[in-house]
Amino acid sequence: MSDRWMKKGMHMMRAFMSLIKEKDTGEYIESLLTYFAAPTIQGLKPGSLINLRRGGDDGIVAAWCSRKEELLRKFRVEALALSSRVMPNDSAMLLMLYKKGHLARALFSEKAVSILNPLGYEKCIPCVDACLERLKARFMETREMRERFLFPHEIGLFLGYPPEDVEGFIRDKGKSPLAVGYWKVYGNVRRARRTFRIFRRAEHRAVRSIIRREQSLL
User: Cα dist. 209→23, 28, 41, 58 in Å?
Assistant: First the structure.
């Protein structure tokens, strides 16, 4: 993925964050989900991670709990709170929004299962809920993971990354990928770049929907 493409993406994200910075906490959360989970909400991938935090706002987790059911119904997704990421004073939380049917297809392919089984998922398959609980436990599995907030690498499967890329990342410890975009690519670069463009267009659509909503309120 070119530097120009990456810079364009960063520019769009900064413009988006500037657009929503004055919103009240509930609207801020809704906008975060709309943008950062756009590919999942639009049915393009099984899961998306949302870093739910806002500088100086200790009430963001409480606001999420207050609007959670409403927003999940609106976006037709489910949510997993990765509790190891809950910060002091409830000031931040790492969420994964997901669509269960899409997640089942992503996790239970032969290749994905071959990655998951050695990592303690063998008794979880083929139950999506059990796999999610295992993923949550993995964040707390070692002292290093707890203290450094490290991600278990198989989370890429939950986010819809191709199994060969997750396998390559684990094998090569994240070094020397063939390409970098939404994830590090070790397999089919052409297919990955096509997918990156699809995800980027989904985010564009999300931003445009937020802008239209803002304009309708003027």
Answer: 16, 14, 13, 28
Question: Going by C-beta distance under 8 Å and a sequence separation of 6 or more, which residues neighbour residue 151?
Answer: 139
Give the integer Cα–Cα distance in Å for 161 and 165. Answer: 7
Are residues 121 and 134 in contact, defined by beta-carbon separation less than 8 angstroms? yes
Q: Looking at this protein, which amino acid is placed at residue 82?
A: L
Confidence (pTM): 0.89
- What are 89-128's pLDDT values in tens digits? 567 888 999 999 999 999 999 999 999 999 999 999 999 9
Higher pLDDT residue, 177 or 86? Answer: 177
What the block records as the tokens of 135 is: 């993923």
- Which two three-digit tokens encode residue 18? 């500037």
The three-point CA angle 85-91-93 to 5° equals 30
d(CA 192, CA 203): 17
* Whether pLDDT at 1 is above 60: no
Q: What angle do the packed helices 3-20 and 189-216 form, to 10 degrees?
A: 20
Query: Which residues does 139 contact at the CB level (< 8 Å), separation at least 6?
Result: 82, 83, 84, 85, 145, 146, 151, 152
Contact 14, 3 (CB under 8 A): no
